[in-house]
Amino acid sequence: MTLDDTIQAVTGPDEAAAEAAREHWDSLAKPLGSLGVLEEHVVRIAGLTGSQEVRLENGVLLVFCADNGVIAQGVSQSDASVTAAVASALGRGDSTVNHMAACANCRVIPVNVGMASDTPPGVLHRCVQAGTGDIATGPAMDRETCEKTILTGMELARAQKEAGADILLLGEMGIGNTTTSSAVASVLLGMEPEVLTGRGAGLSDAGLQRKLAAIRRAITVNAPDPKDPVEVLRTVGGLDLAAICGAVLGGALYRVPVLLDGVITNVAALCAVRLCPAARDALLASHCSREPAAGLLLKELGLKPCISAGLRLGEGSGAVLALPLLDQALAVYHSGHTFGALGIDAYTPQQEETPC
Predict the structure, then answer these.
(1) How many angstroms separate the CA atoms of 5 and 224, rounded?
(2) How far apart, in whole angstroms, are the C-alpha atoms of residue 123 and residue 83?
(3) 37-40 contacts: CB < 8 A, separation 24 or more?
(4) 258-260 and 59-66 beta bridge pairing
(5) Cβ-contact 114, 66 below 8 angstroms
(6) Residue 346 carries which DSSP code?
(7) Residue 39: active-site member
(8) Inter-axis angle of helices 177-189 and 263-275, to 10 degrees?
(9) What predicted TM-score, i.e. pTM, was given to this entire model?
(10) Alpha helices, DSSP H only, in the chain?
(11) According to the model, what pLDDT value does residue 201 have?
(12) β-sheet with 59-66: strand ranges across
């Protein structure tokens, strides 16, 4: 299936299933809407899957690993060897998110979609290109490579759905990818890099200025068209962003909910939604990270996060943290603890709710 075919094939939610899920929440013996965003997430999943019988028993975290040529501009305190080291730990099951995922009963599948080094043991090899060009001096990749990487992400979503996954969590690992993410966000949101760019893994003041300068140069040199998300990804983005964009499109096409991590996955998701607005219905937000662009991206996507805890770890860790919250919400959802079972009158809405 081509990228254009995918965009045409994605359809909107099943409103009847979503409404049935809302009505079921309202039948439960608790204040209406009292589980907040968690209730909204379950309703969204029902609309996507076409069934109010929402169950999340087989979660899979895809961690997309790739390297970014822009690190030549001094935008990170680390180099590509760290991408290789963390990918190796992911493959061994010994990186931070592996330990977190074990507590959440979630499988972790690291994927090499663009590492500059060899694929480590335990990491799925789907490398389209060995790292990107330096976006401060030219495009990250050519359009064919970008589209192939997007389709790779879609194929991974399909494969996991067929293997039994009922929710996809998305994460990433790649030194320099907060720089590429800020560049893509700046173009798509039409905002200055200074508003959107943070310190990533912990840059000094001087490092932050180098990062901002690299992003400004990248946008000037490449002049990406904000109306063409693939062009934005291929000029100032990265291979991990392109693959995540594809996984979002795959989630929407194959009707499996997608739980985003932090700002990098949010940027990639915005690319997917700009390509295919209906893809928005597959998305769930786990948290709002400390990166300056995070809240702005979630607002643009129309998503509300489950968690606000100043997270900035990456690897999909925020998504993994949110998964048990959804599990606990579903424990209530399937409890049978209804107003009727207690023999009391159901609550009815008394006033308009004020958004948080």
Answers:
(1) 24
(2) 12
(3) 37/304, 37/305, 37/306, 38/306, 38/325, 38/326, 38/328, 38/329, 39/329, 40/304
(4) unpaired
(5) yes
(6) P
(7) no
(8) 40
(9) 0.95
(10) 3-9, 15-27, 36-49, 80-92, 96-103, 143-162, 177-189, 193-196, 205-222, 229-236, 239-254, 263-275, 293-301, 317-333, 339-342
(11) 73
(12) 124-125, 106-114, 59-66, 167-173, 258-260, 283-287, 305-307
**Positive or negative, the Cα torsion across 147, 320, 97, 262?**
positive
Phi, psi dihedral angles at 304 (to 5 degrees): -115, 130
CB 200, CB 56: distance < 8 Å: no
Q: What is the DSSP letter of 24?
A: H
Tokens standing for 120? 């480590």
pLDDT, one tens digit per residue, over 23-69 is: 999 999 999 999 999 999 999 999 999 999 999 999 999 999 999 99
Distance CA 78, CA 73 (A): 12
Nearest to 174 by CA among 154, 155, 200: 200
Residue for token pair 């663009």? 114
- HSE-CB for 336 with a 13 A CA cutoff: 1
Question: How many CA within 13 A on the CB side of residue 100?
Answer: 19
**Nearest-CA neighbor of 171 among 72, 66, 81, 253?**
66
Find the helix packing angle between 317-333 and 36-49, rounded to 10°. 90
Q: What is the CA radius of gyration of the chain?
A: 20
> Which two three-digit tokens encode residue 303?
């998503």
Amino acid code (one letter) for 149: T
Query: For the segment 290-341, what is each residue's pLDDT rounded down to a tens digit?
Result: 889 999 999 999 999 999 998 989 999 999 999 999 999 999 999 998 888 8
Owner of token pair 């990918």: 87
Q: What are phi and psi of 60, to 5 degrees?
A: -130, 125
Of the candidates 40, 147, 291, 315, the residue annotated as catalytic is: 315
Task: For the chain, give the number of residues.
Answer: 356
| 3-class DSSP state of 128 | coil
